[in-house]
Amino acid sequence: MSEPASTTASGVALAAGTITLTGSIFGLQYDALLFGLAGSLMSLMHLPPDHPALRTMARTAAMLFLSTFFAGALSPLAAPALHGAIEWADKIPAEPIRLAAAALIGLGLLWIIPVAMRRVSTLGGQS
Question: pTM for the full model?
Fold first, then answer.
């Protein structure tokens, strides 16, 4: 069995290499992808050793890729949503809100995706 640090480092290298490819194909903003990756890596540092995202290198890379992708895709929606919902947010420029949202989405998705997958599998078994 490989050491968790080497598996994580390999997963990070794979996920970081796909950021450029994903951003250029789907037209996502690179800064949001990088902030999403930073949030994902911070979340990865604090995952327990038995977390489903850390079982294999491919799963670690896939989880980092998904959380980074969703952070880049969903962060542009954060600024207009926040400006429309909260009055004091009108004083904050849209760019910092978008980048903070990308980091928060990247931070949270490593925890949310396994929970959602478990929920979907339990709902699928209740036919």
Answer: 0.71
Please, what are the averages of pLDDT over each run of 10 residues along the chain (127 residues)?
62 64 69 89 83 78 86 87 81 88 90 83 75
Q: Are 7 and 56 in contact (CB under 8 A)?
A: yes
Widest CA span in the chain: 53
d(CA 75, CA 55) in angstroms, rounded, equals 28
Provide the residue ranges of all domains of the chain, joining segments of one domain with +.
4-124
Q: Quick count: other Cβ atoms within 10 Å of Cβ 21?
A: 9
Tokens matching residue 82: 């926040």
